[in-house]
Amino acid sequence: MLTRQNASLQQFSSFLHIHLYSYYVITHFYALNLCLITDKFGNTPLLEAVKQGHERVATLLFSKGAKLNLENAGSHLCIAVSKGDSDFIRGALAYGSDPDSKDYDHRTPLHIAAAEGFYIMAKLLVDAGASVLATDRYHQTILHLLSVPSSLKPLRV
């Protein structure tokens, strides 16, 4: 395809060269066993790939041994659930995040999904192994939340 677009093999800034170089860097970088390198915010390359929705890059990084290294995973997942970011949730769970990780109030992402009425998020979390018996700081489970209709928002798909 790139040769049909008049890509020159001598021009080193073409799409072909950029993609080949990116693949080379990823595969050789992780061959050096630097899987947990982070930026100044503590984000790993795998976490950045998941955040940006680069599924193929995330799969490649994970296959080379990269880790999410998601500090405060509960807070990150709860925020993503409250924003309705199912792609991030799906990616974080696929690459090792604990669906029962808790935020500062000891709420799990499933607590947030139930309270916000996010059926799809709740199903995604339960399918990933989230416990409906996990308790928050007030010792309430998801079942407690669901038994008080006034505290819940309408179900959203």
UniProtKB/TrEMBL annotation:
Record's GO cellular component, any one?
Answer: monoatomic ion channel complex
Superkingdom to which the source organism belongs: Eukaryota
The residue spans of each ANK repeat are 41-73, 105-137
Q: Which Gene3D superfamilies match?
A: Ankyrin repeat-containing domain
Q: Which keywords appear in this protein's UniProt record, sorted alphabetically?
A: ANK repeat, Ion channel, Ion transport, Potassium, Potassium channel, Potassium transport, Transport, Voltage-gated channel
- Which species expresses this protein natively? Aegilops tauschii subsp. strangulata
Matching PROSITE patterns: ANK_REP_REGION (PS50297), ANK_REPEAT (PS50088)
Q: SUPFAM superfamilies annotated for this entry? A: Ankyrin repeat
Could you identify this protein by its name?
A: Uncharacterized protein
Supply the InterPro entries for this chain.
Answer: Ankyrin_rpt, Ankyrin_rpt-contain_sf, KAT/AKT
Annotated GO MF terms: voltage-gated potassium channel activity
